[in-house]
Amino acid sequence: ARSIHAHLTCPLRNLPGPDRGDRVFGHFKLLINDYDLTNRWRATFGTNFVYRGLFNKRELYTADLSALKHILVNDMIYQKPPPMRQTMESLVGNGLTVVEGEEHRRQRKILNPAFSIPATRDLTEIFTQKSVQLRDLWLRQLGHADSQRIDAFAWLRKMTLEVIAEAGFNYHLNALEPSGPPNELVQALEKLIVRETPRETAFRFAQASIPVLRLFPTGVGKAVPAARAEMFRIGGRLLAESKAAAAADLNPFGGKKAARRRDLLSVMVQSNMLDDESVRMSDADVIAQIPANFTAGHDTSSTSSAWLLHALSLNRACQTKLRQELLTVHTDNPSMDELNSLPYLDWVIREAMRAYTPVATTFRVAMQDDVLPLSKPYVDRHGVVRDTIPLRKGTLIRVPIEAVHLDKDIWGPDAHEFKPERWECIPEAAKNIPSAWGNLLTFLAGPRNCIASRFSVVEMKSLLFTLVRAFEIDAAVPAGEIIPTASALHRPRVRSELGKGAQLPLVLRRYVPVDQY
Ligand code: HEM
After folding, report:
1. Where are the coiled-coil regions (predicted)?
2. Nearest alpha carbon, ligand 1 atom 17
3. DSSP state, 258?
């Protein structure tokens, strides 16, 4: 009776939106199969609408900038949804991506120095080294041929995994080494790439609300224990090594001082040696940061870099202009400051992160009743104009990052086009987007923004710097053939080869300066 009453009096019931969906799945099955569905609903119902989640429960979509700002800034009220947290927690333990409230603030304070400007400056050498390694591997594949087709996404996955392992935890993977033995961590992560059926995904979500269902793991749930055990075993070993290195560094009789280690793990270990208890973490919590950052940083980085190359492959003029700028730098190993001094490189990255948003969606749940402010009023199902959205505790909210990036009211009629030059003078409306970087929601905003935004942007700059100076990059399939996956992270795939999963075929040619022909 209580749930029927809650349904009938739900404050979202008057919002516009699609007809109620399946009795059990609501619109859930449609949403996890169709990457464009919410965009079409948005075009029909406007900036704020209601749709149905599992068990036909009403969920809110809002792309209103004031509402989004309110949600993202008030992290104590709006938290990650239990199914999202539960899957992550079972995998990574209590790392930064999982914890909420005061514990999140505490962990974030301890981890922030590892992602500061000086720390990123030190890590740039690793970004460049790995980019050069990838460039040389591609050159070797090209051999004496005029051109070579590659799956750039598969290579970028390996390269970004190496970067995060080394820059994050001083861990050497050799994932880019084609003839090397298989690596234990790569194998652990691969165990997690499980293709779930929509039914299995729905069941996993239902497990968050109905604990007894957790006795029956399926899909990802089945793969998690083995992968988690492996990651924590490796994490424990890395922590022991990092502690030994820090101790050797402190010991005046320990012989030659170890080179100062800047990786994330070393920063945490050093912080644990300070007297201030508020910046100390237990060993278990330190170890939990390793899988937390691997999972948060690996797929996102490879996906973002893939879309960057895709954007350039479709825009030869922009690629040439970028190459001209990059060739003005007379070194193969630019510093972070040299990379940051290249304006066109910066525009290209911002524009690719806008036009091809990697993390397209995230979700929050209201932990208490609240009222969302709106920057523009909306008209409800009965024709009444409303200027706020009241919410009940437990309401799930879809944060449509991609929709904000492609909003014609914000970016103008050419919002869907890739035009780096727009960053010379962005529209006033774009300055109202809540943001942690570049007037975009790529790295979200507020206290839970991506801790590694600086790290990721410099990594992408290093990669483009190295690859665009060496290769001319073309699309291997017609433009409309590359579409995103329907997941929250939009990986690239080929429309006519969906069975192959995520991939990005590209054609490479060695770049030869005109005067060397
Ligand atoms: C271009 C690549 C990346 C993109 C687009 C990206 C995007 C994001 C987004 C949108 C969030 C917020 C998710 C949410 O709260 O719902 C996030 C959080 C996070 N990201 Fe990234 N990320 C990237 C790379 C990385 C890397 C390389 C690392 C680690 C080295 C990393 C570590 C994290 C962590 C730890 C959080 C949680 C922060 C917190 O809750 O305080 N990310 N990222």
Report:
1. none
2. 450
3. P
Q: Can you give the pTM of this predicted structure?
A: 0.92
CATH number of the domain that residue 117 is part of: 1.10.630.10
Residue 435 sits in the same domain as residue 295: yes
Residues 395 and 446 reside in one and the same domain: no
My answer on whether 189 and 309 are in the same domain is yes
pLDDT at 194: 58
- The reported pLDDT for the residue numbered 196 is 65
CA pair distance 435, 429, nearest whole angstrom: 13
pLDDT at res. 88: 79
Alpha-carbon torsion, ordered 67, 71, 77, 78, to 10 deg: 120
Does the complex come out with an ipTM higher than 0.90? yes
Q: 513 CA distance to ligand 1 centroid (A)?
A: 38
**364 phi and psi angles, rounded to 5 deg:** -140, 155
Lining ligand 1 with CB less than 6 A are 96-97, 108, 164, 168, 292-293, 296-297, 300-301, 304, 358-359, 362, 442-444, 448, 450-452, 455-456
- By residue range, what is the domain housing residue 138? 93-361+400-516
- Give me 464's structure tokens: 């483009």
* Residue ranges of the chain with per-residue pLDDT less than 50: 252-258
The per-residue pLDDT for range 84-100, each reduced to its tens digit, is 888 778 777 888 999 99
| Cα of 292 from ligand 1 centre, angstroms | 10
**425 is known to lie in a ligand binding site:** no
Q: Let me know whether 405 and 383 are in one domain.
A: no
